[in-house]
Write the structure tokens for this entry.
Amino acid sequence: MKGNRYYVVIYEGPDPGTGKSRHRWHSAGATRKDAQRLLAELVKKSHDGDYRAPDRVTLGQYLEQRWLPTKKAQLRASTFDSYRRNIDNHVLPTIGTVPLQRLTPEHLDAFYAELLTSGRRNGNGGGLSVKTVRNIHTMLHKALADAARKGTVPRNVATLADPPRLSSARRPEMKVWDADQLRLFLDEIAGHRLYPAFYLLATTGMRRGEVLGLRWSDVDLDRPSISVSRALVIVAYKPQLSDVKTGQGRRTIDLEPKTVAVLREWKKRQMEERMLTNVRPDTDEMFAHPDGSCINPDYFSQVFDRHLAKSALPTIRLHDLRHTHASILLKQGIPLKVVSERLGHSNPAFTLSVYQHLLPGMQADAAKAFSAAVFG
């Protein structure tokens, strides 16, 4: 024991070059039980032939040189970019020099606390959001789990760390329009070139990036339906197409006649634009600038925000159009499972957790409807 920490010392035989005895110190934790548990793990690995002597690599070297490069082919581009930026901006300057073998839960706890108070690197100071710190913890947990699985470290210390709770995070307030307000918005913005994109987002509940990532080959206007399989996302501050994760967004959405009419008219207008500008893009993007370039998702949101700044409608976020779509469906009595499938949620339980605030009023309506059906 050194200070308030326990260590397990493993004898590794004589050094081939000097003949001196070699001993390896493994940080075990703050209690004797931690040391006993680690000792049992190391003895078992030694007997099984799985013991691996620790090296002198730091946390930063492990993340940058070993772990992250192997993940590039496994992750979506946006996820890989967020990992890379979090490592460069937050992990390396703070705990990147800590030897991987000596990393402790206390290191991570202090790291998270510092991020919450002074983690911003934009020159303005201040702390990161709880959600961002949780994302960094999730990344480190995955990286250290891989290291433990491969024997690089004896255990994943991130499992013992205490990241901030999401319940303490200030989530953006969800605001929705009613059906009349949504109709008024669509009437007001009908003259804008991107009106069909806003109309499609409002009538399908699709995400911003999913709408902007659509191709005409994804649409069947005769069936009529849309296949959602990719999204336009921001990677390293630039728009980039990314596949939608299976089971978390990839889906087929049925369209109603008015939406089909809006899309047919838009397709006709787009063809006329391209004939006038002599633009022949290589892809069949449904929504693009007249020169064929993609529409930046941030620009799409800015158009929405600028319009609301001049409108008498209540101010909401562009993403709240998706919530508006869901709330109108639920208030119309559409089954939760159908709404969940339409939105591309992983399961109805998640949809319920997002929109549970709508249920009290809906239950009252359901009680009245039951009474009317049974008793007249």
User: Anything to note?
Assistant: The mean pLDDT is 87.
